[in-house]
């Protein structure tokens, strides 16, 4: 078992936060005074409502110092707030200047509730119409009206005061092979057009870059960790589609491949493309379509039919080629993770396991495994108290060496040309305490409850979310994030509409891939999370009366037996773990070196031993 050689990395450890919020918010307030506004909304969003955004769209981070993937700053002339969800309630106060910016947990108040309570009568709140959906603007309007104020669409005021703002991305846009996509562009567009006809629409404006990538079998590099080309498409029910891409770096092979189905144009020509929609009923995606798009469609004499882009549901259900790719990617990824876990045990025993060293080693093991295109998100590598920060991102300033008696949590994923992975393992360094073993086993029981679940067709993620929480609830415990998110096929590691969460209202269907990741977080002490990806599949039940579904676990890597308290598991749970570990061994061991195979054999010893 040898360590991989150094190589260029997909992630850095620079601290992207800053302590310039006071001066930058004051600059924004000066711009408010010049425009006659009393406030401005700064969401963590680009014009596609993306999770990962290009550098020129990192307005929230530039203004406040907060670097999380979700949040909204509300800047008024005399007060300001940053609303964040449960993933960031620990991180946000560490990154922003709380003397001028109040961190508000989403569980206590939504942005609209804060506006309703803080905007004064006759005050006007500005917003950028490219960064809000029609429904989002309607919520802002209701909140402002309740307070006796109003809202106004304006050019983005952050851009006006952001000196040195980065240029838009210009990464290459390339073909995603039909063999991996499992369907040609023509076949996909025929399905989309049939859905438009069924919905009574004449055209579709594709505003979600993930849907653009899926529908036209293309991949790009405009944002970090997700192979997206930013842009839009106008797809009529009849005739060729028109793509409007931000990047001009388009592979000639892609132009040739799309020539029969679509014309590729510059993003700057989008207004002309929307102006041609006079008299047309146009489906606009409610989740990612900016209110600016709706207004331009209507100004052209078209009708904006705001609803779900039909591509979203099609993309969520993987075809046979995508499922085969996911399985192959997880075998490759699993071997790399096992090599890493074996290395981690040795590094921890030698006292040289630091958070950054772990990130670098895991990425290098994946690179050595072949076909690594990127990590699927910045690795969460948290030791001891840092593990309790759900979306902790290690920097050179925060890096710490794992100490004996601590837990180490590592949540990571990879982008391969045939699939996207996401896995979390929590590992004991030295002897864990009884409380650690208890909490870990309760999280594991919830994880197993999802993995072993059998449920009728039509069941939503919200209906099974409680399965993962019940063992924690029995001890008066819980976690403040969803149990599972959808995952793409060499696309986003966080893909909708499917999810296992209290908000998961979409029925699960065969072919959907989701994460299974309950957790527990002891603030200031340690964090526990266990994550595998699972595939929804039909499940035959002898003498059953209804069609049923279940999950195939795709991820292949052992759980840390040192943290398992067998007495808390029932016989079925112990049998499932032993069978899963045997599957990990049978699948991965033939491709491992002798030293790593020996480590794996020890790691997966039956729980009865």
Report on this structure.
By secondary structure, the chain is α+β, with helices and mostly antiparallel strands. The chain folds into three domains: 21-161, Creatinase/prolidase N-terminal domain (Creatine Amidinohydrolase, Chain A, domain 1), CATH 3.40.350; 174-311, Creatine Amidinohydrolase, Chain A, domain 1 (3-Layer(aba) Sandwich), CATH 3.40.350; 320-600, Alpha-Beta Complex (Creatine Amidinohydrolase), CATH 3.90.230.10. Strands 4-3-2-1-5-6 form a six-stranded mixed sheet, with helices on both faces. It has a six-stranded mixed sheet with strand order 12-11-10-8-13-14, sandwiched between helices. Helix 10 links the parallel strand 11 (241-245) and strand 12. Helix 14 (320-349) packs across helix 15 (355-369). The two termini are 26 Å apart. The model has no long low-confidence stretch (mean pLDDT 96).
